[in-house]
Specification:
The protein is α/β, with parallel strands linked by helices. The chain is built from 20 helices and 13 strands. α4 packs parallel to α5, α13 crosses α16 and α17 runs antiparallel to α18.
Amino acid sequence: MLHLPVGINTFSSIRTGGYVYVDKTEHVHRLVLKQGRYFLSRPRRFGKSLFLDTLLELFQGNEELFRGLHIHDKWDWSADHPVIKIDFGEGGMRSREELDDKIREILAVNQQRLGIACQFQSNSGCFSELIRLAHEQTGRRAVVLIDEYDKPILDNIENPDAAREIREGLRDIYSVMKARDAHIQCIFMTGVSKFSKVSLFSGLNNLEDLTIDSQYAAICGYTQQELETCFADHLEGVDLDQFRLWYNGYRWMGEAVYNPFDVLLFLQKGKVYRNYWFETGSPSFLIRLFQQKRYFLPNLEGIEVGEEILSSFDVDRITPETLLFQAGYLTIAESFTRRQRLLFRLVIPNMEVRLALSDALITGYTAIDADKYAIQDALYEAMTTFDLPALHGIIHRLFAAIPYRNFTNTDLLDCEGYYASVLYAFFASLNARIIPEDVTNKGQADLTVLLDTHVFVMEIKLVQASEVEGNPALEQIRAKGYSEKYRDQPGVTVYELGLVFSRAERNLIALGGREVLGASAS
């Protein structure tokens, strides 16, 4: 049985060390048939570094590593090229000075490997000279591979001044490639985000973006067929339907893929379902951005965006939707055209991301950590039994437990959307299906929550006073008939829930509801 390549991003180590390799060289072959300048954005730990290392070995002509792979009999192994590789994945850079030092070290390593000594002192001058001399001394154009091109900026995204300085330093380097185009056979750049051409690639406007090109949807990650073929010996006893539900679902305009990190860790760690990929990163900056922009969290269930949102990211203009997509917390469900514009519907890709992101949102929006699991259990029990006194008590205790001193410098708590967002995070953590602003012919309900065989149509009100007469939220549901479209559906029970919160109390002050008994209910 071949070994699992956990944590190995080196193509030669996998091919010579008895590890499983998922053959991606069909994509490689399509890219290297001509001179090309390519860019690829994928979330972290998705196999980008391994793909770049595969390109490096190919262009260096290491034929033995490719025997038995798709590209082996299709490549001229005498046509090797000098390769310049820049990798920002190692270490952190907190200033322009540290970035310049790192670039200087990277260029020195490339000079040593290629047997070239640069005379120019500046980093941009040395890089330019390195490309030119690599071509002139070998008679073959250079290949430039840049891994994690954006990491120095992303590491400083919460310090905009440092991020801007680092962005300028990177732009100085990347702009060199445009001037040396005649000496370059291939450029391939990878990263998590796609910065706008104006901000970072002003001199390099000929990059072909493969990020949402359907031909390259599976260039990184494992398809279902690749999983079942390459890992067949390791999948014994695995329920493939459950596995797909947990870890598949990432789409870039083509076939859905698995995150390799999840697959490998699941198989290595006793085939236990848990958040392997999600826990390697922190969405804390994203959550703070949500709060700053007073983002209505239920909208995560049905985001529609234009192409510019998916493909533009900058220090001075960060949108939650762009960050969610590029980080891998949302993926493309479908594309469509409306009024001559290409639009995309984004969804959470799988169970791992849904549960882990909702837990992170609960912590970020409530500062409740250890107790959230007990609250989730009690909430599920109260909802599935429609125990209104218990449900009122749970939601009241939930908001009473929030340390509001954490929110003294924000008006977040004065928004109805805050209370809806906290409830959304808890409902999502129960793996409920949630429909925000559920439209009917008489208006829209704030939330509809589908949990197992139960449908809860909800209206949320935020009032100034500490007390309220009656339940205006429930009265609105009844007056507008928000639940009518769910009545008489076989196999489901429909409920109406009205929740009233108080600004003064910062808590739930009224909860009412009823079971809807069919078309005749009034």
